[in-house]
Design goal:
Strand order of the largest sheet: 1-3-2-4-5-6-7
Structural class: alpha/beta
Number of strands: 7
Low-confidence stretches: none
Radius of gyration: 21 Å
CATH architecture of the largest domain: 3-Layer(aba) Sandwich
CATH class of the largest domain: Alpha Beta
Number of helices: 14
CATH topology of the largest domain: Rossmann fold
Oligomer: single chain
Largest sheet: 7 strands, mixed
Order of helices and strands: EEHEHEHEHHHHEHEHHHHHH
Amino acid sequence: MRLAYAIHGSGPPLVVVSCWLSHLQHDWQSPVWRHFLDQLGEIATVVRYDERGFGMSDWTVDDFSLEARVSDLEAILAATGLDRFALLGMSGGSAVAMAYAIAHPERVSRLILYGTVCGEPVALSALSPDAAAEEETYRSMIRVGWAREDPDFRRVFTKKFIPDATEEQMRWFDDLQRMSTSPANAVASRIARQQVDIHNELPRIMAPTIVLQAVGDRSTTFDNAVSVSSRIPGARLVSLESRNHILLGDEPAWRVFIEEVSAFLEPERRAYSERAPNQVAEELSPRERDVIRLAAEGRTNDEIAEVLTLSVRTVERHLSNTYAKLGLNGRVARAAAVAAYLKHQLG
């Protein structure tokens, strides 16, 4: 199965475990998500991906289990070559982040949970009649209205996620739902998330952890955040004065969020800035060193691919990984990486 991922920003690596609605390209034009990308990229090298069945990753999926999603995260990390990093688990992606931190404590330097799930399963049979009927209604609305041009059914979810959004922001989120996945995937993914059961495993998380949660969030309640933070050793809970599940860029809670995340990552940021370029380069794989060496010789990506018997896409991936490890981004990343090679002989 093909998984799509992207890297931007500069600084220590921050891997974002995606929420269920994302699109790597479309999010850059988003009045709902763009501030996340811009401001997180100012404090870290952000690795993000569209999870299975969503966005630019393959939509033909029959397994949305937690185990499959953790395996996807492992595949993304193998592709990027990162050995140690901070993890940001957002909304439904928080379960994957927590499960990975439990399984690989040596690789997660810090854990950030935002709008987190509780980790306890939701069974219709265990819900009150009213709650069970409500959940069945949500699933029916997805099946019936998710793919329609008319956004009326999707607007129900939009108002639950971002009740204080402008009409423009709501229209964008209406459209994101339809373009991010199919109705079948949306239902299957929702059901699979509700079956996740890691609540009793949370005390095994060893990474320093911060949990951020909007107090008025109707999608994942503040009680969920309290439950999670109380079970993770040493975790700190930060309340955000907002009703939005997805914080909007112009609300005060967003400024609190980005300041808290920046302060939490400061030890990594400081250590990263103090590392000499040749120390960073030690993290480059042999193939990444070959690619940057040929780039320094003035070879094009097509020429590098021919010399190393690789696809052009693989060459581009190696270059992206090199930029991330060197803390480079933007249009000058290639030139800066080549300059670092020439100055420090990274290859």
